[in-house]
Specification:
By secondary structure, the chain is of the alpha/beta class. The protein contains 12 helices and 15 strands.
């Protein structure tokens, strides 16, 4: 172990003259003869607080213990012990389904059983095998400290699958607005569904949708401020959550940078910075080469991070701010990666399979699972309602003035005619008309 040695150390822990029992305290081997569990010591001068130094040791141990497996490394900095253990493969047979979660929670994927203290019942692709898996839950309600999420991954790594999985989980209790910056068409099955405000893939429609989202954020903030000022609860029109899902904003910025309108990232500033009190959550998916083009406020607001697919140490450290506790898998399946929520620990992640149901390569089982989660189509207006809404408003009909209204709308009297009339009583004994009233006398002139 050259990383645990130093030229100035007169009595190195790892030397040819020493026995292996002084460095390795525990060990166990698998059936194929490869190490399955190791507990080794390291000298006190090793920089175990440096993530890059630990990463070099982990890569060396993973290569010497056998490739093709995933290892977990636990550093005991106080005792100077390093524990290596082989992790079981995460299940890749889980498909999109209705998960048991609380309101405001979404399942990003599944991780190692000992990493989280909660499990949810799930079924395999065949729908017959029922088991319990450890989920990675992300909260997007106003009480969450990480209401926005950023997912990075190369093409084919599963970022679009992650976004489809989150959309299907959000639709029962939220409105969604999808902006497909790359124009891949992987969200076309959501068109016309109840709760889907729009699915935009062309640059003009995407900019219009993001501009509407910025104005909607301001409107919700104003309504919430008025309710708090009056001491009332938030109105219902701003309490329903709104999910803004944006794919490849860097590509969209490049396509719309010719005109003088605000760019996509400029329009995302209001939902990212003020979306939490407005019940708005933003989910962004981008490729690693386009992550540098994202604005600083995007990186500051998206504290929930997901990295899918093969990634180098620099990419993981730049995105998650710390390396993962386990080694990357050499043959990474789609949807496999790491996630970190805020300042929490880094977890291994396997996203449930959520393919495009309109893709010819999708199996019938997966297509049926995705279509079963979709809400019904939004009710279209009838022909009569459409004609009435398209017709101009009719002019108000005027009634003929009668009674007091006629007197109010009559021509004003002149000064002579407005003088009070002098009444002359009828002489006594004069006959009365059948109605009981005497006829009026005309005034003398």
């Amino acid at each position: 172990m050259p990383h645990f040695g130093a030229p100035e150390n007169p009595d190195p822990l790892y030397a040819y003259a020493r026995t292996w029992e002084t460095a390795f305290e525990e060990y166990a081997f698998a059936d194929d003869g490869r190490p399955a569990h190791l507990v080794l010591r390291y000298p006190g001068y090793f920089a175990d607080g440096d993530p890059k130094a630990r990463w070099h040791v982990e890569r060396l141990l993973a290569a010497k213990s056998g490739r093709g497996r995933e290892y977990r490394f636990d550093w005991d900095q106080e005792a100077g012990r390093l524990t290596l253990s082989v992790l079981p493969a995460l299940p890749t047979t889980l498909c999109a389904q209705r998960f048991v979660t609380a309101p405001g929670e979404a399942v990003l994927g599944f991780t190692d059983p000992d990493a989280v203290g909660r499990t949810v019942p799930v079924t395999d692709l065949d729908g017959r095998s029922r088991q319990h898996a450890a989920p990675v839950l992300w909260r997007s309600d106003p009480r969450s400290t990480e209401p926005h999420l950023l997912a990075l991954g190369r093409p084919g790594s599963g970022t679009t699958t992650l976004l489809r999985s989150l959309l299907l989980q959000a639709l029962p209790h939220a409105d969604v607005l999808v902006v497909d910056g790359a124009g891949s068409g992987g969200y076309g099955f959501l068109h016309g569904r109840s709760g889907v405000l729009a699915v935009e893939s062309d640059p003009a429609g995407a900019l219009a949708a993001l501009e509407w989202a910025a104005h909607e954020t301001e409107r919700r903030l104003v309504r919430a401020h008025e309710a708090r000022r009056l001491g009332r609860p938030a109105p219902d029109d701003i309490r329903r959550p709104l999910w803004l899902v944006v794919g490849r904003p860097a590509t969209l910025t490049h396509l719309t940078s010719t005109d003088g309108r605000p760019g996509p990232q400029e329009l995302l500033r209001a939902p990212l910075q003020h979306g939490r009190p407005a019940h708005i959550s933003v989910v962004i998916a981008e490729q690693p080469d386009g992550a540098e083009a994202l604005g600083p406020y995007v990186a500051a607001a998206t504290r929930a991070r997901v990295v899918l697919g093969p990634a180098s140490y620099e990419e993981l450290h730049r995105t998650l701010s710390t390396p993962p506790p386990s080694s990357p898998v050499p043959d990474t399946p789609p949807g496999r990666g790491f996630t970190r929520l805020g300042d929490g620990p880094v977890h291994s992640l396997q996203v449930p399979a959520t393919p495009d149901p309109y893709d010819d390569a999708t199996s019938e089982v997966q297509r049926g699972a995705v279509l079963a989660l979709l809400p019904g189509h939004a009710a279209a207006p009838s022909a009569t309602e459409a004609v009435q809404s398209a017709a101009p408003p009719a002019a108000p009909r005027c009634r003929p003035a009668t009674g007091a209204a006629r007197r109010r709308t009559a021509t004003p009297r002149t000064a002579a005619s407005t003088r009070p009339r002098r009444r002359h009583p009828s002489p006594p004994g004069a006959p009365r008309p059948p109605g009981g009233r005497r006829p009026r006398r005309r005034p003398r002139r």
